[in-house]
Design a protein that fits this description.
This protein has 112 residues and is of the alpha+beta class. The protein has 3 helices and 6 strands, in the order H-E-H-E-H-E-E-E-E. Strand 4 and strand 5 form a beta hairpin.
Amino acid sequence: MKKAAKKVATGPATARAYHYDVILSPVITEKSTAASEHGKFLFNVRLDAGKEEIKSAVEALFSVKVTKVNTLLREGKNKRFKNTIGKRIDTKKAIVTLAEGQSIDLSSGVKK
């Protein structure tokens, strides 16, 4: 017997949920705060997220116009935990440049 195909829900609610899955968290450091004065914002994103996905997620979640997305992969360090050698997880960051005159207020959260 063949298995029935799963129905995948589509629509604005699932698209919004997908955008939340792409962008994990904002990066809030002194360096990222200084970059935000020049229209650049840093986000932790999924390892398999592409630049186009990140761009559409930021535009959808924050209602802004993105001009450029740069990404960087940071490999996890090998660390010693007592007598065990372990490895920290790999992370991916996205530096999002917004159009002139646009800004994101990260302290207020995401508009729902």
